[in-house]
Design a protein that fits this description.
Layout lengths: L2 E6 L21 E6 L7 H9 L3 E6 L8 E4 L1 H5 L4 H6 L5 H12 L5 H11 L6 H9 L7 H10 L3 E9 H11 L3 E10 L2 E7 L5 H14 L7 E5 L5 H6 L2 E5 L3 H5 L3 E3 L5 H5 L3
Parallel strand pairs: 4-5, 4-8, 5-6, 8-9, 9-10
Antiparallel strand pairs: 1-2, 1-3, 6-7
Pfam family, one: HAD
EC number: 3.1.3.3
Organism: Neisseria arctica
Length: 274
């Protein structure tokens, strides 16, 4: 299989890519340079590309329609926010909960324990806060709708798997026409949160397990499955996939991903492929 060094930036055509072969953009915002499979980008060039906020990676020359499944995290990946932090604002605890969330995403805390702790802090909150967050705060990440439309055009299944909550994943699944979604279920009694979770916990291991389960169900090879996420709880899922992408991710997650998107939006996921 042939390989390419792929560079992505919306205005890539106007950049001087010193030290790299002269080339014309493969597509708007994308440059592809043929390389050997064992090619390593020299550190000075990598540093210069990073300085110019150009996303880059060495990828196999694979058509997008050869993928069969994309598995995506929700919070800070498909959407721009951490839903639990915004929910916590309803009880005046956003800063406290956000600090725990950040530590968990950096891999400094056990995910399940930190999740249960944060949910316990929400006890007594009216469930109407969820709809307010969905309607007025939640935003899709740049390029999300484009990527999902490309999946539909190329018969690539899309699964949303989140350590967040089903209230949001269910609505995004219906709104965007996603194929599958999994998340945690909050216990609600008489319209108020009890501070507890119900059923299976979607943690790091569950994310990786769901990816493997659907890879088998769909009869796919490992290289046909792509996963993307931003937090430490996404690392097992990224490693289980044929292609793991860290999207605007924590350092530990980037170190465990094949590709990183730090500057572009989710349209860059499509841009790695032919």
């Amino acid at each position: 299989m042939s390989y390419s060094l792929v560079l992505q930036h919306p205005d890539i055509a106007s950049y001087t890519l010193g030290g790299l072969p002269a080339t014309t953009p493969y597509a708007p915002g994308i440059v592809r340079i043929a390389v050997e499979p064992d090619y390593t980008l020299p550190d000075p060039i990598a540093a210069e590309l990073t300085r110019q906020q150009i996303d880059f990676g060495i990828v196999p020359d694979m058509p997008f329609n050869e993928l069969g499944l994309i598995v995506s995290d929700m919070d800070s990946t498909l959407i721009t926010i951490e839903c639990i932090d915004e929910i916590a604002a309803g009880v005046g605890l956003k800063d406290q909960v956000a600090e725990i969330t950040e530590s968990s995403m950096r891999g400094e805390l056990d995910f399940e324990q930190s999740l249960r702790h944060r949910v316990a802090l929400l006890k007594g909150l009216e469930e109407g806060v969820f709809q307010e967050v969905y309607d007025y705060v939640l935003q899709l990440s740049p390029g999300a709708e484009y990527l999902i439309e490309e999946c539909k055009k190329n018969q690539v299944k899309f699964m949303l798997v989140s350590g967040g909550f089903t209230f949001f994943t269910d609505r995004l699944k219906n709104r965007l026409g996603l194929d599958y979604s999994y998340a945690n279920t909050l216990e609600i009694v008489n319209g108020k949160l009890t501070g507890r979770l119900q059923g299976r916990i979607i943690d790091a291991e569950a994310k990786a397990s769901l990816l493997a389960e659907y890879r088998k169900k769909l009869g796919l090879r490992k290289k046909q499955v792509l996963a993307m996420g931003d937090g430490a709880n996404d690392i097992p899922m990224l490693q289980e996939a044929g292609i793991g992408i860290a999207y605007r991710a924590k350092p530990k997650t980037q170190q465990n991903a094949r590709l990183c998107i730090n500057h572009c939006g989710l349209e860059a996921v499509r841009g790695w492929f032919l």
